[in-house]
Amino acid sequence: ENRMDDEQLAVRAAIIDSDEQHRAMVPQLCGVAYAAARSAEHQNLADEVSVAARRTYLGVAEGVSAKLTPWPRFEVVDSLTQVVAGTNYFFKVRVSAADETDEHVQLRVFSSLFGDLPVLVALRRGAVAEGPLVYFEADAGADA
Could you tell me which PROSITE patterns the record lists for this protein (predicted)? Predict the structure, then answer.
């Protein structure tokens, strides 16, 4: 069951409400709103899909049992949102250890209006992920 319990829904609602004033000040750009980097809501959403992102990054299929090493770091450094029948979140996440050269991945995460758990839709890595965070399609590919 991928439904959140009442306590999780209450916490999620509180986080969303706390961001409401900030969002009111965020300008719209072609349907994508620039949001503050590192907000608690965005970090929590990214954390919820971090295992799926690690599987995708390493090329490990969902049904395959594998011991995954955790990310050295998983810190949202930039984000965009797009309201659809739910919300598409675009995150630029720093995944390298503090003493290493910066490495980033970009995630596209969908959160439905019905309280379902967020879903990793796409992951970009490589040179494109090091660039600015922009809207990208679900089939953008690892390095596109």
Answer: CYSTATIN
